[in-house]
Amino acid sequence: MKIAAADVATQDRGYTMAAGPLRIHVVDLEMFTARAEMRMWHDPAGLLDIGERQRSAMLASPFCAGPRTPMRLVAEQAGRVVGKGEFLPGRIWIGKHPHPVNWAAGLVVDPAYRGQGIATTLDRKRRAISSVFGACGASVQHARIYRRLGFHEISWQRYVRPCRARPVVRRYLGDHPAAKVLTPLAEAALATGRRAVAMLAPPRPRGLTLQPAGALPADLEPIVNGPSAFIRTDRSCPWFEWVLTHQFHPDPGNRQALHLVVEPDRQPVAWMLTRVRFHERASHRGFPDTLLGSVGDWGILEPRRLTWMGLLQLACDVLEGCGCDAIECCLPPGHRTRGLMRRLGFVPLGKLYGFMHFALGLGVDVGAHPPRTWAIRAADGDHFVS
Description:
- By secondary structure, the protein is an alpha+beta fold.
- The protein has two domains: 5-130, 3-Layer(aba) Sandwich (Aminopeptidase), CATH 3.40.630; 157-352, Gcn5-related N-acetyltransferase (GNAT) (Aminopeptidase).
- It has twelve helices and 14 strands.
- Strands 1, 2, 3, 4, 5, 6, 7, 8, 9, 10, 11, 12, 13 and 14 form a 14-stranded mixed sheet that branches.
- The longest helix is centred in the middle third of the chain and has 24 residues, at 177-200.
- The chain is globular, with a radius of gyration of 22 Å.
């Protein structure tokens, strides 16, 4: 029997467009698991087909609160899907209390219907049904929407360290015969630059080793997930397990890893999350076939034993060992290390933007706890796994 939309979805009143009213439907966990929304409306643009990897990752979130957890919004007009936006359930701590957070996990509007305010309507609805709604790694277009809707903005300075010259040469020369000649010359120049940078770099940490970890040790959870800031995202063992075992896009080169930095007696002094992603076109500059390594998150347990810059040096060793063409690191507000980053071979390259909205009932005093003090990182939301 065909399921009627009114029976299984919450609807806005919508507003009238050229072909009729726009309706926004909430797809909850029960519907999303049964793929009910795939059968309810005509979807000629294939907007609802997000792929099995992403669907499985969303369903596996340890923070799904029950069958009514919102997982997706569908914008429908006259029975046709014209836009959609997903949620990734998460958890955020406000003071001593945990709260569910709905992270933005994709928003797309049918190209034939763009320019009519559908994306803004979807985000306004996502904000309305969430006690906490956030986005990490928002695009320039979506950032404009979040600012118009009054979201609190967080920005991370993005730094990139080039490791190989091949993507840059291919970007500007393509398959031109000169590329074969210039690539080894550019690689040699880059290697010379790395040696010069190494001479200026801070002293490397001594007596410490990296230990791959398939999960966060349970005895570290109270420290790693402790009260580091008034507003902070969850870093529990279930979160680490989820982020290490799921990703949205399949590619043999894609992987995430957790490493512990340990003393000779195996006592941990720090941890870090890294990822490797293959990009057919990296950044807005379009560097082709780039293997990009990222330092997504980290924590130092013994500051007297290891500095943040020493931890970054160890992270670069890991990612260069994976054959990355470049390494990126997004520093949260408060990290005034521009000169030190250059000494490690990193150059500033734009910013990563995040946005948060808190319902009034939560009583979050942003004046007392401004966004620059929040412990929200580039590994949050869907950014690290997408």
